[in-house]
Amino acid sequence: MKHAHTSSVRLYLQHWMWRRQVKYLLLPAITSENTILEVADIGCGTGIWLIDLAEQLPRAKLVGYDVSPLQFPPPEWLPRNVKLEVLDALAEVPSSLVENYDVVHIGLLVLVVGDNPLPLLRNVIRMLKPNGYIQWDEADLGGLFRTTSTPTTSKDSLEELYDLVDKRFNRARLSHSWVRSLDELFRQEGLVVIEYKQFPIPNEIAHPWTHMHLLSLGELIKDIEKSGEDSHKWLDLHAGAIEEARHGASVRMNMVVAVGRKPSKVQGTIASTEPL
């Protein structure tokens, strides 16, 4: 998706709702014995995850990486221990970053990696020091469903809109089911699984969560318009879905947190390039 003002707003909203529900930025076990850490955030976007983490870990070195700097805030506004840099995390890892970090965080990149998270996972493992941690926070889009606050509340437009989204992803042969087996992927790549947990979207944040997702679909529709495709049906359904959301229609899925540790000597298939 193209970077835009609405995209940045969506990322801030997404971050704060995620933190409200999960209750932590980093799994507490990671920082229980050591707070002087070198931490990288992959796909950092606005840098908000690191900005919040800087309050908890003022002595840590925090570096965010993103393929584009367009959503970075001014460097003068960042905490003194936070730095944001441009990096394509799917490209070859620079030698200076190999085994450089105690912790690498990945947040909500399911639409970036598509149906094969292994290239990104393997790059992150290369960036970790021995005994370092990876924390991958992800939305289970494969388990997305729609519901309403009452049996009489309409969600017809919402259902039809997401049917269009599903068809678009199916045409591209994209599947996001791997999110539900992140713990198994960690083990496959030689990591020790420390935590794997799914957090449902509760009623208390269903309203803002749904509007956040509709913001995301608004960005997708803008891309469809720019490509020259006919977007009239998309626009009509999007407007109808927004109205339904105002009256109690919602989009739900699980928030997933997977934490793994890189052993001193990793066993497994890290060097493999076979797809899932």
What does this structure look like?
With 276 residues, the protein is an alpha/beta fold. The chain is built from 9 helices and 9 strands. The protein has helices at 5-22, 28-31, 48-56, 110-113, 118-127, 156-171, 182-188, 203-226, 232-246, and strands at 38-42, 61-66, 82-86, 101-107, 128-139, 145-148, 192-200, 249-252, 254-261. A 7-stranded mixed β-sheet has the order 3-2-1-4-5-9-7, with helices on both faces. The relative contact order is 0.17.
Features:
22% strand, alpha/beta, 9 helices, 276 residues, two-stranded antiparallel sheet
Number of distinct helices: 9
Total strands: the figure is 9
* Spatial order of the strands forming the largest sheet: 3-2-1-4-5-9-7
Series of secondary-structure elements, N-terminal to C-terminal: HHEHEEEHHEEHHEHHEE
Overall body shape: globular
Which oligomeric state applies? single chain
Q: Mean pLDDT, rounded to whole units?
A: 90
The proportion of residues in beta strands is 15-25%
Largest sheet descriptor: 7 strands, mixed
Q: State the end-to-end distance.
A: 24 Å
**Rg, alpha carbons:** 19 Å
* Helicity level: 25-40%
Unreliable stretches covering 5 or more consecutive residues: 267-276
Q: Which secondary-structure class do the elements indicate?
A: alpha/beta
